[in-house]
Specification:
The protein has 455 residues and is an alpha+beta fold. The protein is built from eleven helices and 19 strands. The radius of gyration is 56 Å and the shape is rod-shaped.
Length: 455
């Protein structure tokens, strides 16, 4: 439901406050939900709960707001608004620095006025706003009560508000003219209007009124028996004022502008969603930060592993100048292929596997250098021991391991004996011997065949 709470404040804290809750869902009709009166500002907090879920519009007495229409020789709205306070300075009762000027965006009137301003004392504006703030009521707009009265073509509209003790009459004269007075002052206006019809008009609240004014009254008006009064169906004053104005530009007018402009506040639901979104965003950032830290740690560990792989590879193959981790597997396979390959039973690695238990049997003999001849499939070892007996034991152990060994020269250097071995597989030697015999046999057969053909 599009419910609106209307609050009509008084000029002073002790004045009666009128309020009305109306449903304006239907633009053609409005439903009054509740209404009432408060005996002064001290009871305004009773409307706080009613204002929480509704749009709040505040009405203020027209006697505290001076409506002026002026013709200003300027084109831009900024220039017009800068000039108006000083153009009206002589006609105002207070210093312009103590007054607040609110402006309406309306079309030029019959007198070709191009500026429409509502003037109210800063002190009075701040007083109204302090009452609302103390009651924790957020108002969307503040309007003079005379501007929400019905507008009558070639006439006025009027209604009385309040009880006998502080009854006021609210009158709207045209689109940007009106006044609010107490009943005694209203009776004086009525006498002036009825006794001077032939002079073309009298001053009413600072404005010129026609002699034969027609007034549409929405409540009985005391002292107006001699005027041209048209009785309209009686309505609650705030219910009458709550009806939307037909002028869309006037609907947009609001005293809360300039320094008093209301800052848009988000609803509770929006604030809750923003809080939830903020928590979710914080959790996401926290998770991303944790993942980022883990990724940085993994990258650091990966760099260390790569450096370790390169260092070990260069240690194993010191002649290698450039090593790339991406190609180190292929480089390693190439180096292993040069050593006979992993699956080669006669190559370097296979022979090392056979030598390991031999070295274990003769711990007194220590290898100094090991070289492998890929073409001959021969392993050459330079070793050192404490005596010659260790070399003999090593030779015997090699033969027992089905390896062919050729012992090189040995020499005594101080308390150590150095010597060399040339080691190969017996199966390879046998294969090589058979291959050589086969080649000799084929060559002999070819020579015999050639001799026969010659004879």
């Amino acid at each position: 439901m599009a419910e609106t709470l209307f609050i009509r404040l008084g000029s002073q804290a002790h004045n009666t406050i009128h309020w009305l809750v109306v449903d304006q869902t239907n633009t053609n009709e409005q439903e009054i939900i509740a209404s009432g009166e408060l005996k002064g500002v001290e009871q305004l907090s009773e409307l706080t709960s009613k204002a929480e879920s509704r749009t709040v519009k505040v009405l203020v007495p027209g006697c505290d707001v001076l409506l002026k229409s002026v013709q200003v020789p300027a084109k831009s709205s900024r220039a017009i608004r800068l000039a108006v306070p000083y153009m009206l300075e002589d006609s105002l009762a207070e210093d312009v620095d103590k007054l607040f000027f609110a402006y309406a965006d309306l079309a030029n009137d019959e007198q070709d006025n191009n500026c429409f301003t509502a003037i109210v004392a800063h002190k009075q504006m701040q007083l109204w706003l302090s009452w609302l703030a103390d009651a924790n009521i957020d108002a969307k707009s503040i309007l003079p009560d005379v501007l929400v009265m019905p507008q009558v073509v070639d006439g006025w509209s009027a209604i009385s508000l309040g009880d006998a003790s502080e009854q006021q009459v609210i009158v709207r004269q045209n689109s940007w003219q009106g006044f609010t007075v107490d009943t005694n002052t209203w009776q004086l206006h009525c006498q002036a209007l009825s006794t001077q019809p032939e002079k073309g008009g009298v001053a009413v609240a600072g404005n010129e009124a026609p002699s034969q004014v027609r007034i549409e009254a929405y409540s009985p008006l005391a002292g107006s028996e001699q005027l041209a009064i048209t009785a309209m169906p009686e309505e609650l004053p705030l219910a009458l004022m709550a009806k939307p104005a037909k002028d869309s530009k006037l609907n947009r007018f609001n005293l809360l502008q300039g320094q008093y402009k209301v800052k848009e506040t988000r609803g509770n639901a929006s604030q809750q969603w923003l809080w939830v979104a903020g928590v979710a965003l914080f959790a996401l950032l926290l998770n991303l930060g944790d993942k980022g830290a883990q990724l940085w740690q993994l990258n650091t560990e990966q760099d260390k592993v790569q450096e370790s792989i390169i260092a070990h590879y260069k240690k194993a193959f010191p002649k290698t100048k450039r090593v790339r981790v991406a190609t180190i597997k292929s480089q390693l396979n190439r180096e292993l292929a040069l050593l006979g390959g992993v699956n080669d039973q006669q190559g370097f690695l296979a022979m090392l596997a056979k030598l390991q238990p031999v070295f274990a049997k003769v711990p007194a003999l220590k290898p100094e250098t090991i070289k492998f001849d890929g073409k001959r499939q021969e392993l050459r070892i330079q070793a050192v021991a404490k005596d010659y007996q260790a070399f003999e034991q090593f030779s015997v152990a090699l033969a027992a391991a089905n390896l062919t060994v050729k012992q090189g020269s040995q020499s005594n250097q101080g308390d150590q004996v150095t010597g060399s071995f040339s080691i190969s597989n017996k199966a390879m030697n046998k294969g090589a011997s058979q291959t050589s015999s086969k080649r000799k046999s084929i060559a002999k057969q070819r020579r015999n065949k050639s001799n026969k053909e010659t004879s």
